[in-house]
Write a structure and sequence with these properties.
Distance between the termini: 39 Å
Organism: Methylocaldum marinum
Number of strands: 26
Order of helices and strands: HEEHEEEEEEEEHEEEEEEEEEEEEEEEE
Protein name: Alginate export domain-containing protein
Radius of gyration: 27 Å
Pfam families: DUF1302
CATH class: Mainly Beta
Strand content: over 45%
Keywords: Signal
Structural class: mainly beta
Number of domains: 1
Low-confidence stretches: 1-64, 352-361
InterPro entries: DUF1302 (IPR010727)
Length: about 500
């Protein structure tokens, strides 16, 4: 059997599983809106037929209705979402990365996939909740994942051209003033929406060009979290049992640089963990928070081995974080501010002249860093919102530890900016939104516009356009002048 036939067989198996799940579940859920099946039987003696209420009949439940009721009980805590996604790069052009050969970018399909998202939430006892979600994807012909064998994430599994992942999965126990949560979850710090210098607890997956928002990219990790509430205060603590790292670009994806070798995972030759606490309190019109944590940097550094020529090493790094955040409301306007001090984060260095953009940086030095993110969110009216934010970082003692001719790879002050706008129309059935972001030094920018229309309680459609621009020296030089058009249709039940 040829490889293509194997792939088609795997795809058929995966689609068969997803379609069977959809078909079976649809039959189960269709009974939720139907009346219970009953049959009316005539009675010979009116007195025996409930003379007290004047009835002359009795209702006898059919055996099949018990099965339907049981099925409803089994699936009532689940929700399902079936989607088909299609994205394509539609602007044929050539990019010219620094110190590298020109790369031709033709019109090309990038995403052509069918997915099933399953959510589960069950308050199975007083004070107890179990919650989770998982997804399955079938990569169809034309998708860059079709026919490839890319590395999977933790709790992600691959079978031919189908992929399965457990995202969120935790159990929560709540008391009057305490709440404990154990399992795969996210912990979000910081006030600045989508662009916070403190939103670094969970890793993120930007391997797919259709994912441009941090809220969609966060990955769950195995944690124990505890919240304690008193008066207008909350103390939150988390312990991460198994710190993970941002995944590298998938082969064949828009972010993958052709010709680069496979990147290794970091060694786990010693127990890894993360821990942190945050104290939050509220005063009239404002919220404040202080936090401290011991963390690992989400982004690995990849360096050439000094003892094994040609071998690439994944370098992980632990550091300490101190932070503070605040917001202040003025009517429809919300001001937001985050501050961070990081002790021992790695600063990438470069040797002159600058190496090609895809070559690993020569070294990374531990340094201390100050960071801030600030911005505002404004409700124009009940249907329109806009938010603007800036994130900036600065290394202290920039020149310490550098070799002759070596310099830091970043500017004195570096970071990102973000603008978001949303407009809800037709009583919320039509949602228009736009995202613009880029770097402070102007070497990268993105603009996106999208519309989502909800047809009814089950069906929705989404269309999106994404444009990216990058300088030849940027790490995203291959995305320069790309224009992507996407379409997504979903059915929820």
């Amino acid at each position: 059997m040829t490889r293509s036939r194997k792939n088609r067989g795997s795809l058929a198996v995966g689609l068969g599983i997803l379609l069977a799940a959809m078909s079976n579940t649809s039959r189960v859920f269709s009974t939720e809106t139907d009346d219970e099946f009953t049959i009316e039987l005539p009675m010979d003696d009116p007195q025996s037929a409930g003379a007290e209420d004047g009835g002359g009949i009795d209702e006898v439940q059919l055996p099949g209705s018990f099965a339907a009721e049981s099925a409803r009980g089994l699936f009532r805590d689940f929700t399902f979402k079936l989607s088909h996604q299609f994205y394509a790069q539609v602007n044929p052009h050539t990019v010219f990365p620094n110190n590298a050969q020109p790369v031709r970018k033709p019109e090309d399909i990038e995403n052509n996939r069918f997915s099933l998202l399953i959510r589960y939430q069950n308050p199975f006892a007083r004070g107890w909740v179990i919650q989770g979600n998982a997804q399955a994807k079938a990569y169809l012909p034309g998708d860059y994942e079709h026919g490839t064998r890319n590395k999977t994430l933790h709790m992600e599994y691959r079978l031919g051209d189908t992929e399965y992942r457990i995202n969120e999965l935790f159990v929560q126990r709540s008391f009057a003033s305490h709440s404990f949560k154990l399992g795969r979850q996210t912990v979000v710090w910081g006030e600045t929406l989508g662009n916070s210098v403190l939103d670094i607890i969970n890793t993120s997956d930007f391997r797919d060009s259709s994912i441009i928002e941090i809220e969609d990219a966060r990955l769950n990790q195995w944690m124990l979290s505890w919240d304690y509430y008193w008066n207008d205060k909350r103390l939150s603590t988390f312990f991460n049992f198994y710190p993970e790292f941002n995944p590298p670009a998938r082969r064949g994806s828009p972010f993958h640089v052709p010709g680069t070798p496979a990147l290794p995972d970091p060694e786990r030759d010693e127990p890894l963990f993360e821990v942190g606490s945050q104290l939050q309190w509220t005063v009239e019109g404002s919220d404040f928070a202080l936090m401290a944590a011991y963390l690992y940097e989400n982004q690995l550094r990849y360096e050439l081995s000094r003892t094994s020529p040609g071998k690439i090493l994944a370098k992980k790094n632990d550091y300490w974080l101190l932070g503070a955040s605040a917001n202040r409301a003025f009517g429809r306007l919300m001001l937001r501010l985050d501050l961070a001090y990081s002790h021992g984060v790695l600063a990438d260095t470069l040797l002159a002249p600058q190496a090609p953009f895809f070559v690993s940086l020569p070294s990374s030095l531990p340094k201390n860093q100050l960071g801030t993110s600030f911005g505002f969110e404004y409700a124009i009216d009940n249907d329109q919102r806009i938010s603007v934010s800036i994130l900036a970082r600065y290394f202290l003692n920039k020149q310490s530890g550098l070799s002759p001719g070596e310099r830091l790879a970043t500017d004195d002050i570096f970071g990102t900016w973000l603008i978001r706008y949303s407009y809800s129309l037709m009583n919320g059935d039509l949602l228009l939104w736009s995202t613009m972001n880029g770097t402070l030094n102007g070497d990268r920018a993105l603009i996106s516009g999208a519309a989502t229309y909800t047809l009814d309680d089950h069906w929705s459609v989404m269309a999106q356009a994404i444009g990216t621009w990058s300088s030849p020296s940027s790490a995203t030089a291959l995305l320069d002048r790309d224009i992507r058009l996407g379409f997504n249709v979903s059915y929820s039940f």
